[in-house]
């Protein structure tokens, strides 16, 4: 009897350990702490984080490139992913592309696994961006139709997430399309080419061809900006021609180009 007691104790302990192991395993499963081998087919946190980082880098590079092409000075960008979620793994790597950047509040990107044989579905992403830059702000009021000059403007850092046509530089020869007020952000849509020839103005008609230049006087029948085409009456012949505005008081026959 005494000889069988250790064996009995051993059996009890083995059974208890087995039950305990099952209990701990069930508890771990309920808590989500599943061994890596049990979820080999599921998404890995490190793979998800790496793809999220790649998506953010792609969006940041594309948007900053757009900002530089637009001539914005010192653009700064912040990106957020509203609803991050687990993503599948793609051992061969991802190809990420920006699909839609019309609204910084709703950037659309897609990531495609470069290994077609892996049969990993494309992953869609929605991001939000905040963009700021050194842009021009009106410091002196400008009446509608009046030329806009640099001494009426000042560079300030502003959030331009909702104003994609904000300007950091001013091209010469532009006028206010409507009245501009101090503190207003200068936008491309608020500007138009300045009128340099007004209806009724006396203009010089300049025609050059084959090294020969001829000039005559005329009367502008329309108003126009530089490179605009207006009607001009030749004072000598009385003929009305289509003329391109070269500068204030100077035009050329439009047919010469």
List keywords for this structure.
20% helix; 2 helices; 257 residues; alpha+beta; single chain; five-stranded mixed barrel; disordered N terminus
SSE layout:
Layout: H1 5-31, H2 45-69, E1 73-80, E2 94-100, E3 107-113, E4 123-138, E5 153-159, E6 174-176, E7 191-193, E8 195-197, E9 202-209, E10 212-220, E11 224-225, E12 229-234, E13 240-247, E14 250-253
Explain this structure to me?
The chain has 257 residues and is of the alpha+beta class. The chain has two helices and 14 strands. Strands 1, 2, 3, 4 and 5 form a five-stranded antiparallel sheet that branches. A five-stranded mixed beta barrel has the order 9-10-12-13-14. Strand 2 and strand 3 form a beta hairpin. The termini are far apart. The N terminus is likely disordered.
Beta-strand fraction estimate:
35-45%
Q: Which outline best applies?
A: elongated
The helix content, as a percent range, equals: 10-25%
Query: What can be said about the biggest beta sheet?
Result: 5 strands, antiparallel
Per DSSP E runs of 2 or more residues, the count of β-strands stands at 14
Q: How many alpha or pi helices?
A: 2
Mean pLDDT: 84
Alpha-carbon Rg, integer: 36 Å
Oligomer: single chain
Low-confidence stretches: 1-42
First-last Cα distance: 119 Å
Structural class, please? alpha+beta
Order of helices and strands: HHEEEEEEEEEEEEEE
